[in-house]
């Protein structure tokens, strides 16, 4: 229960959902205070209940150690200095402590704990983004262009006029053509009704059409069968026959055996070009004291551990409930501004490729001018130096 200043009363707030392996009720046993929350079953549950004495003998030491570890981790960040003892106790309950091995993915590619914020306690990790680049060769030179189907094409003023104002022109044309068709159809109906009995046939036709419309709105298997001479067709099934040649067919087949058809409009998907290649670029690095997972853009990105990494995970909703001075929103805005975008990474990728090509051409030019034979190959260069050059290029 928390106090709502707007309603001026205490209201209940959901803290979270527990699953197999979780526990509750240890707060009151560790601090000798009343229960701080109410747990309600959402389905069939089987619980293991420990009394106070059994809890002290079995779990108090391990739980207290885990809480002390979370408290030390929270004290390493100045973000939590304004929290009181009750809030810190709640943080110890909802926090998760995780460790990652080198080259293990922390977040991204369907891996990681979603809706949780990561606080790095020790170790170092990097953010890697995949770029899809179209490579084309013209006159012996390679040209690169970024392929990103998720980013819409920038509209010019001409495209804007065609998209929005052109629709009104088509609407006016359709309305005019529909008016012409309606006038032609009405004249044809009048000519046909003059040949027949206008008093009887017209009234029956009107009533039958109204009945047909009412039935068709309830049942989709109703069909109208007519013949040129105005008589009902013999090939049609059973149904109600009205004068004027209109027949309402009964639904065929049992209702439970009918197949439902769902129609949907899907956007046209274009196939990617054949000369497309995927490159991986290092966006940034996270050191101890860094945090991520505030809702920043993670499309085509993943965070991989460079060394052994220890993290503290806290639910995003719990942090937003204690958003002192709007600090978490400001951190998210800071990360979105500081982390390079895909276009900036592509620009750096092209510049690094141009420098690599220029260096290779310069070396080939210098070597070609010398008359001596150079039998030195890439394999003669120490492997550590080659790895450093590869890291510099990437």
Describe the protein in words:
- With 394 residues, the chain is an alpha+beta fold.
- Among the domains are: 2-124 and 287-339, Jelly Rolls; 160-194 and 201-230 and 241-247, no CATH class.
- It is 39% helix and 19% strand.
- The chain has 10 helices and 13 strands.
- It has helices at residues 26-31, 52-58, 60-75, 85-94, 157-195, 200-216, 316-321, 327-338, 342-369, 383-393, and strands at residues 2-4, 9-11, 96-100, 105-107, 116-122, 125-138, 141-146, 239-242, 246-249, 276-286, 291-292, 301-305, 309-315.
- The strands form 4 sheets. Strands 4, 6, 7, 10 and 12 form a 5-stranded antiparallel β-sheet that branches. A 4-stranded antiparallel β-sheet has the order 3-13-5-11. A two-stranded antiparallel ribbon has the order 1-2.
- A hairpin with a 4-residue loop joins strand 1 and strand 2 (9-11).
- Helix 3 crosses helix 4 (85-94).
- The radius of gyration is 36 Å and the shape is flat.
- The two termini are 52 Å apart.
Brief write-up:
With 394 residues, the chain is of the alpha+beta class. It has ten helices and 13 strands. Strands 4, 6, 7, 10 and 12 form a five-stranded antiparallel β-sheet that branches. The chain has a four-stranded antiparallel β-sheet with strand order 3-13-5-11.
Sequence of secondary-structure elements? EEHHHHEEEEEHHEEEEEEHHHH
End-to-end Cα distance = 52 Å
CATH homology group of the domain at 2-124 and 287-339: Jelly Rolls
Named at the architecture level, the CATH assignment of the domain at 2-124 and 287-339 is: Sandwich
Round the Cα radius of gyration to an integer and report it. 36 Å
CATH class of the domain at 2-124 and 287-339: Mainly Beta
The percent range for helix content is 25-40%
Flag low-confidence runs. Answer: 198-202, 204-248
Tell me the total number of β-strands.
13
Question: What fraction of residues sit in β-strands?
Answer: 15-25%
Mean pLDDT value: 75
Basic shape:
flat
The name of the CATH topology of the domain at 2-124 and 287-339 is Jelly Rolls
């Amino acid at each position: 229960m928390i106090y709502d200043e707007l309603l001026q009363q205490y209201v209940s707030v959901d803290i979270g959902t527990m699953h197999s392996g979780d526990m509750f009720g240890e707060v009151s046993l560790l601090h000798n205070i009343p229960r701080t929350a109410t747990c309600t079953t959402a389905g069939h549950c089987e619980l293991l209940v420990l009394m106070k004495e059994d809890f002290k003998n079995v779990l108090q030491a391990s739980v207290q150690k885990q809480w002390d570890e979370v408290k030390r981790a929270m004290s390493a960040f100045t973000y939590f200095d304004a929290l009181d003892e009750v809030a810190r106790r709640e943080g110890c309950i909802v926090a998760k402590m995780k460790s990652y091995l080198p080259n293990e993915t922390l977040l991204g590619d369907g891996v990681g704990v979603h809706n949780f914020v990561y606080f790095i306690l020790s170790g170092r990790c990097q953010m890697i983004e995949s770029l899809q680049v179209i490579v084309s060769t013209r006159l012996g030179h390679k040209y690169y262009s970024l392929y990103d189907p998720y980013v819409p094409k920038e509209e010019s003023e001409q495209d804007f006029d065609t998209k929005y104002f052109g629709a009104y022109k088509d609407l006016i044309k359709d309305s005019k053509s529909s008016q012409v068709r309606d006038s032609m159809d009405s004249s044809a109906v009048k000519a046909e009704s003059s040949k027949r009995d206008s008093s009887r046939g017209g009234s029956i036709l009107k009533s039958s059409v109204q009945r047909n419309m009412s039935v068709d709105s309830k049942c989709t298997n109703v069909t109208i069968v007519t013949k040129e001479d105005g008589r009902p067709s013999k090939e049609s099934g059973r149904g109600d026959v009205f004068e004027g040649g209109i027949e309402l067919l009964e639904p065929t087949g049992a209702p439970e055996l009918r197949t439902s058809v769902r129609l949907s409009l899907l956007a046209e998907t274009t196939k990617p070009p054949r000369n497309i290649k995927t490159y991986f670029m290092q966006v940034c690095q996270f050191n101890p004291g860094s945090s991520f997972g505030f809702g920043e853009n993670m499309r085509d990105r993943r965070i991989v551990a460079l060394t052994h990494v220890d993290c503290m995970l806290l639910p995003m909703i719990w942090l937003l409930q204690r958003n002192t001075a709007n600090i978490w929103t400001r951190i998210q805005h800071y990360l979105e501004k500081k982390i390079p975008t895909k276009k900036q990474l592509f620009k750096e990728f092209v510049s690094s490729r141009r420098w690599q090509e220029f260096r290779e051409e310069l070396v080939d030019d210098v070597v070609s001018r010398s008359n001596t034979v150079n039998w030195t190959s890439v394999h003669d260069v120490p492997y550590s130096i080659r790895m450093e050059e590869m890291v510099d290029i990437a």
